[in-house]
Design brief:
- The strands form four sheets. An eight-stranded antiparallel beta barrel has the order 14-15-16-17-18-19-20-21. A six-stranded mixed beta sheet has the order 8-7-6-3-2-13. A five-stranded mixed beta sheet has the order 10-9-1-11-12, with no helix packed on it.
- α2 crosses α6.
- It has about 475 residues and is of the alpha+beta class.
């Protein structure tokens, strides 16, 4: 730390640019450098030919450069100009395919952080859609659930590492060529779905160089994204992912939730696919249509300064339907212009999504051996095992309060393996205060339905079937 400070002071006094290898502190990039990085690494987005919604500005039908119009003194104001979210989505659906392309836009921001003792620069892209139209289809359990909601925000993160000797923070005229020389892509993280589904990830292998612009595949309707590293127009788990998670989402145009990924889950993105790119990368790729690239910070600052009443805000950003609020993971109100700062917290939450949704305090109910309604309260722990073959570890310690009965306690530990996006098979052992022989072996399922969990289990020694419904928070 002391040497890094001395190095910075020496560079500042001598006028010598600070190289990436000269400091272990986060890098302070100039505005021109951040803009150059955002442009240089902007991905090519490849959509299903029948996709109804392309990424656009959250200000649709306005562009993000139209913000001054919302500040005109005596003007109609944001509430009148934007109108309701329902009306904006309806207006978007009425556009022709060419008009949707003309409105295509992606937001970006660039920030530096220190993680694991290493300095990295993260370039983050927001793809906003006015609507999410998707149907989830169960794997082992034949069900279909519509996942339709206003607003949809998907994020792409490119984690960059500075090249040796790169002069950073002193380039007022930085351009795309400088950015591609100064940084290398170390990781690609693209959002799949919220809830407990991990993002699609690709870590650059030793000696490998990913040349921008990267190609990113987009799922039809729900807009989950995955890198297409081998450029074959399909998500191939062996080539386009280095993740070791048991549930690999990839791209699933038909909404199938099986845990094991199959190539049949997506349609090929051939010549008829819709390809969007920035104007600066259009000449370096196959035929594609340009999308506008806007800085996120301007939108966030504007949205945080406008004073909306509660009803006005609900009208502009929409409201989460009651059914989705009770059972789903999406909060429509947070998806138009999120307020999270550029510090990587949203990225870390995405990477640790499964562990975060599996663990926490537990409250719910079950029926005891006498079929008496019983309150369950306690704590649930979860450890993610980085392997596609070995189960994760889950443990619970709960107290049980039967109606009119004696209080009980139990402690269990399970091996948990994903069958599909909502179902885990659990096998383990536990201690039960109400049993004649407290130790027992259990086998069951753990089903996650939005914020609710249903867990039917069978205790072998006691021969007791138990089914409980809980929520974790």
């Amino acid at each position: 730390m002391r040497h890094a400070i001395f190095g910075l002071l020496f560079a500042a006094l001598s006028g010598v640019p600070v190289g990436a290898a000269d400091t272990a502190e986060p890098i302070s990039l100039s505005a021109a450098e951040r803009a150059a990085v955002g442009r240089a690494f902007a991905p090519v987005l490849v959509f299903h030919p029948l996709e109804d919604y392309l990424p656009t500005s959250p200000m649709f039908p306005y562009d993000s450069t139209d913000l001054p119009a919302f500040h005109v003194e005596g003007g109609p104001g944001a509430q009148i100009l934007l109108g309701s979210q329902v009306a904006r989505a309806r207006q978007y659906r009425m556009l022709s395919a060419a008009e949707k392309v003309a409105h295509a836009a992606v937001q970006y921001r660039v920030f530096s952080r220190l993680t694991g003792g290493r300095v990295e620069v993260v370039v983050e892209y927001w793809c906003y859609y006015v609507f999410n139209a998707f149907t989830v289809r169960g794997g082992w359990l034949p069900y279909r659930v519509p996942d339709n909601h206003a607003n949809d925000l998907e994020r792409i993160y490119l984690v960059l590492t500075p090249t040796a000797g790169a002069a950073l923070g002193v380039n007022p005229d930085a351009n795309d060529t400088w950015a591609r020389r100064a940084f290398r892509i170390a990781r690609v993280i693209t959002n799949a779905h919220d809830g407990s589904i991990p993002p699609n990830q690709y870590d650059t292998r030793p000696g490998e160089t990913l040349t921008p612009p990267l190609t990113v595949l987009v799922e039809r309707g729900s807009h989950a994204m995955a890198p297409d590293i081998n450029h074959d127009g399909r998500f191939t788990s062996s080539a386009d992912s280095t993740a070791t998670t048991k549930l690999l989402w990839g791209i699933r145009d038909r909404g199938t939730t099986w845990g094991r990924y199959r190539s049949s889950f997506m349609d090929n993105r051939g010549e008829s696919a819709v390809r969007l790119c920035t104007s600066s990368t259009a000449t370096a790729t196959d035929a594609c249509e340009p999308y506008a690239l806007y800085p996120i910070n301007d939108l966030q600052e504007w949205f945080s300064t406008v004073q909306f009443s509660r009803n006005e805000l609900h009208n502009i950003v929409g409201r989460t339907p009651l059914l989705v609020r009770a059972f789903g993971d999406v909060r429509v109100e947070r998806l138009m212009i999120p307020s999270d700062p550029p510090d990587g917290r949203a990225l870390d939450a995405m990477l640790h999504r499964r562990a975060r949704t599996e663990a926490g305090y537990v409250v719910g109910f079950t029926a005891s051996g006498a079929h008496v309604p019983t309150l369950v309260a306690g704590r649930r722990y979860f450890w993610n095992v980085s392997s596609r073959y070995f189960p994760d570890v889950m443990a619970e310690a709960v107290a049980m309060f039967p109606v009119g009965g004696r209080r009980m306690a139990e402690a269990t530990i399970f091996g948990s393996y994903s069958v599909d996006a909502i179902t885990n098979v659990v096998v383990g052992t536990g201690w039960f205060s109400s049993a004649n022989d407290p130790a027992d072996v259990l086998l069951g399922l753990d089903l996650r339905i939005g914020r609710l969990r249903v867990r039917p289990t069978w205790r072998f020694r006691e021969g007791v079937f138990d089914s409980r419904v809980t929520t974790t928070f």
